[in-house]
Amino acid sequence: MARFIYSQNKMSASRPRPAVFDPSPHNELSVVHSTGLTDDEAWKIGSRTLGTEPGRKTIRGRADVPVHVLIEQKLRAMRDDNPFERHTSVLDWPSSNDPNEAKQLRKLICLELSQHPEVTLAIPKATTGILN
Amino acid sequence: MSATAISFGSVTGLMTPARSTGQSEPAKRISNMQDEIRKHLLTSYVIAAPTEQVSSRLEEVWSEASQSGWDGYGAKPIDPYAYMYAQFFVNALPNSAPIPEVSADSDGEVALDWFFGDRKALTVSIGPTGRCTFAWMNGQSTNRGTDWMEDDIPASIVFALAQLARSARPR
Q1: In the predicted model, what is the mean pLDDT of residues A99-111?
Q2: What is the pLDDT of residues A8-40, one digit of tens each?
Q3: Domain boundaries, chain A
Q4: Contact B64 A8 (CB under 8 A)
Q5: What's the pTM value of the predicted model, to 2 decimals?
Q6: Is A3:A21 a contact under the CB 8 Å cutoff?
Q7: Do the domain assignments include residue B66?
Q8: Contact A53/B60, CB-based, under 8 Å?
Q9: In this prediction, does ipTM exceed 0.85?
Q10: Domains in chain B: how many in total?
């Protein structure tokens, strides 16, 4: 799975920060099903998302997450191809009647994902024209 | 003892903002002296630079995340009170404490992260009520909790940071 990053503050030099995986405000994480895609093909999908939502002016990076890492965290990836082909939602984020506990649980999962050795940060090449 | 007076690793905290509640004249004089010494230390480039660096990074993130939808996924802008509490948090960090990375959560809170190497990390989200939600990992141990900023950084977070700083060097 690939999570496109449009904001510089969500990544450090070599890793996505935990906030990259924050599913608020809809308790869903919007990603792209990238299995079987080359690096260039993945960036091409990213470039098609530019301008489709506020804040999508520049792609700063891409967090690549193997599906089994999501499963380890008891999350579920559901490909829905909406609003574009290969769009996938990561669901089943923990909920709680206690909003403090709900936030704690989300933060721990975000931290686990950001620090997992198989989760990597890809940076677009300047030549792709994606990074303005 | 003030929570932030706890030393980090083998390095003793130089000075945190004076928070004595002593009302006697000697107590007030000592408190004033502490403030003066701290101000003096903060004028030193070596000590002031990291603190200023975090404050300046905080301002950059505030500016970047000031509009609704700033992250491309419908995030809320940073809440001004969350920003204020984050400033207070950063200013209250002991001068010898490891420097956090700054980012923003999609719900309008400010996130401070410390990374110390493989599975040694702490993340804290600071909300508009001074709520600090944190999660940390130290090897196979993981912890999470909620605490509130009152007149200092919550002791639970200072404890986490001290544990991580003691066991690893920042990367």
Answers
A1: 97
A2: 999 998 999 999 999 977 889 999 999 999 999
A3: 2-125
A4: yes
A5: 0.83
A6: yes
A7: yes
A8: no
A9: yes
A10: 1
